[in-house]
Structure formats: structure tokens, C-alpha cells
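input
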Amino acid sequence: MVNKSLLLFLLFLTLPACTLSKRKDPNTAREIVDMLGNRVTVPKPLERVALFSGPTGQIALILRADKHLCAVTKTFKLSPLVREYFPHITALPSPRTVNGMINIEELVASRAQLLIAGKVDGELVQRKTSIPVAFFEDSLDEGPEAIIQEIRFYARIFRAEPRAEAYIRCMKTVETLISSRLKSLEESQRLRVYNGFSPSHLVTLGGDTFFSKNIERAGCINSASSIKTLGKREGLHSGLGEISMEQVLAWNPDIIVVDTGNPEALKADPRWSSLKAVQAGRVYTIPSGFFVWNRPTAEAAALYPLWLAMTAYPEKFKDLSLPAILKEFYRTVFSVSLRDEQIGMILSGAYREKMMRNVP
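output
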């Protein structure tokens, strides 16, 4: 049974059942302002939108705007949860593979009335087509406030402001829950967390990234807070940086979170065996739902800090059920009813592995 505190928390998660408004207007166009301050004229009604971002594509699902998409990034279609619950998206063309790699002919053939994109993709499309472009801010140095700005930006485009504000209330409710449970935590009690990406586990996000803020929101400290990793490096996703094994040993984190491979394999590796996290058995796989929780998404902004806080300080949340909270979150935010085994796959990171296997 879930107790009173969990029920109160779930009550706050309830979102209004609204859809995209069908506003009748004699005008044939309207103006929106994108996240870079550009004024963009779009037709009325706006029915065909190309969305070029894998991680933030899920905002369209939150806003119930998925039926208005006419083209997406390939990685967005690889999500097993997208494939199961939003199968129509898998049939959409995917002119974009990665940043700057766009099949212009396929995009034009999608008859997009508007493209939502980051700077590199958007400027490329502006040079080669007449499709209007609304730019999102693709910096990785912002925290939860950037997610709030982004979801409001999408809501203006799709005229889904009530759903955007409901999600924002949900995210802030999670923050309130965490802070109320950890208010007695002394600075000296805060655990140091190292997040190791790639098969080597020697790639991470530094203290100048959004991820460091998400770790802090969980009442923890990013072991990599002293280094800066913003920017693009060859062979790595933007914001990631390579470090040495010696650096991890010097940090000696209390908790290690990996995105690839099996935590048991890391614990059995003699190079890692002297670390406090390994000796305490505190090595975990990062969860992955519609997208892996180490990227700047609306899903991760709400759920990663909660998962990490409950993982790091279980005694502070012992009366709450994380699987029950996740079920309610996905039901109210994404309108999907997940099964117990799916919740288990999210928490084990299995969906990331399935997504990677789908990559051509």
C-alpha cells in the first residue's frame, strides 16, 4: 500500500485533460517568438511541424502535439516506448540523423509548415529552403529553468499552454518533495556522485553543464564539478568530456552511475575496486524512459533528481514507492499506462540498450 504522503504527491501530479485548442480565426497567419528572440510567421492553422531534436521531441508528446508532427529526428523514432505508445511517429520521415546531417529533399517532401530546430540544423535549412524555422536554445549549461522556458516555447507553437503549465507544476512538486525530505541533510553528509558514460565509463559531464545542476537538485555533489566539459569534442556528444582513470580515483566518489554495460562488470574490474562506491556496492545504471535520463529532457528534469535522491538517501524516502510514482508520472504526463515490467526496464536502463540496438 502507498501511504498518505505518496497519495498527496500523486495528487499534485494530476494534469488537466486538455488538447490542442482549435481556434477559429479569420486570419491566415500568426507570429511567434522563438527562444533566440526571432519573430517567426506561421500559417493558421499550423498542422505540419518538423521537429529536429531527439531528446526534446518528447515535449510534443507531453503537449499532445504528436499528431501535428510531419518529420522528426531518427533517434526519436528508436525509443521503444515511442514505438509502442505512439506508433504513428515511427511512420514519419526522419530527414535528420545527427546535428548538421539533413536530407533536404526528404524534409521538403514532408510539406512542413514550420521547422523547430537548433542553431546548426536551423541555419542549414534556412539557407536551402523557404521553410520557416523556430529555434530552440541548445545550450547544455542551463538547469531546470531552461526546460521550463523550452516547454513554454513549444506550447506557444502548438497552443497547448495549459499542458505546459501543468507539467511545470509537476516538476516543481518533485523539487519540493526532494527538498522537504533532505532539508536536514548537512553539507558534509551530501554524497559525491560520478556519472560515467560510454563503455569505458571515463566520459562525463562537468560542473558547467545542466547535469551538475540535476545532481545538486538531488542533494548530491557532482564529482566532476571542478572540470568544464561544455563544447563539442570529436567522437563525443556535445557537453561530454573524457577523463582519466587516475582522475576518478582521486575523486573517489560515494556513488557511481553508468549508462553502458553492467554495474557488476565494473565492480569486478580491479581498476575500480578501491573506490568507495565499489566497495559499498553503490554502482548503478542510469534509468532510461522515452530517452535516457542523462540528457536535458523534460522527463529527466523531473525524474532524474528524484531517482538519484531516493537512491542516495533511501532512508529519507522509505515510505514512498518509486515505481508507483513513476507509473503515475507517465500516466498523467505522457498519457501512457506502463506495466510493472516496463517500470522495471526504465529503472534498469534496459530501454537505452534496446534503443542503441535499433541504431543502424
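quick obs: Residues 104 and 128 are 8 Å apart (CA to CA).
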